[in-house]
Specification:
Distance between the termini: 88 Å
Largest sheet: 5 strands, antiparallel
Radius of gyration: 23 Å
Number of helices: 6
Helix content: 55-70%
Number of strands: 5
Mean pLDDT: 87
Length: about 160
Amino acid sequence: MTRSEKVQIIAELETEFKASEAIVVCNYKGLSTKKLEVLRNNAKENEVRVQIIKNTLANIALKKANKEGLELKDTNIFIWGKDQLSVSKIASKFEDDNELFEIKAALIEDQIADLAKVKALAKMPSRNELLAMLLQVWNAPLQNFVIGLNALKAKKESEG
C-alpha cells in the first residue's frame, strides 16, 4: 500500500468516525469469510459500516476525529455508524451467534464503553419501535372511545 493510499484511507475514516455515534472494536480471528459476509450484509441493511482496518491507520484516523482512548491490539474489525443502537445490536447479535467473535471495546458518544454497556444498548428498542409504542399509547383512548360509541349505537338500535 502506497503512502498516498494510506493518506486517502485515513481521510475517509476520519470523516466517517467524526460522523459516527458509536465505534465498536471486535476480535474476528478464526472466523471464515462467509461468516464475516453475514455480518457485513446485516450491517449494510442497517446503515452501519464494518471494516477490517490496520491498527496504525485506525489509530491515526481516530486521533484526527478526536475519538481517542481505544487500545488497539492484535486483529480487529471495526463496526461503526450514526445510530449507536444499531451498531450495538449488530455487534452483540453477531457475538451471540459466533463464539469466535468477541467485542473488545467501544466508543459510544466519545466515551469508552465496556461490553456491558454495548449489551445494554443492544437490548433497547430502536427509535422506530419506540415511536410505534408511543403511537399505540396515544391511539388507545381514541380506539376505546370509538368502541364505546359503537356499542352505544348498537344498544340504541336494538332498543328502538
